[in-house]
Amino acid sequence: MAAKHIGILGTGAYLPERVLTNEELEKMVDTSSTWIIERTGIRERRIAAPEEDIVSMGVAASRQALAAAGLEPSQLSYIILATNSPNFLYP
To answer: Taking the CA of residue 21 as centre, how many other CA atoms within 13 Å lie in the half-sphere pointing to its CB?
Structure first.
């Protein structure tokens, strides 16, 4: 049996530009920044633009990972993706 060479050679990340702070959120709903922070630790969150979705954000992160690894897409055998926010829901 031939040895398989598997590893993580580079990583990438993508964050949408739009930031929604707790202070902005407390103007929209009946809550406070303090209440949110005490219960969740969250101070801000990123909001995807209308044209952004899990695929476009994944592509941007993948490009960073490839650049960090010094690889071209054609050099990959597999891409493994895990998400809790897919484009389509499955039964």
So the answer is: 4
Phi, psi of 47 (to 5 degrees): -120, 125
- Tell me the sheet residues that pair with 20: 45
> Is residue 15 within 8 Å of 49, Cβ to Cβ?
no
| Nearest-angstrom CA–CA distance, 36 and 69 | 38
Q: For the segment 2-37, what is each residue's pLDDT rounded down to a tens digit?
A: 667 788 899 999 999 999 999 999 999 999 999 999
Residue with tokens 């899990």: 54
DSSP classification of residue 30:
S
Domain boundaries, the chain: 18-67
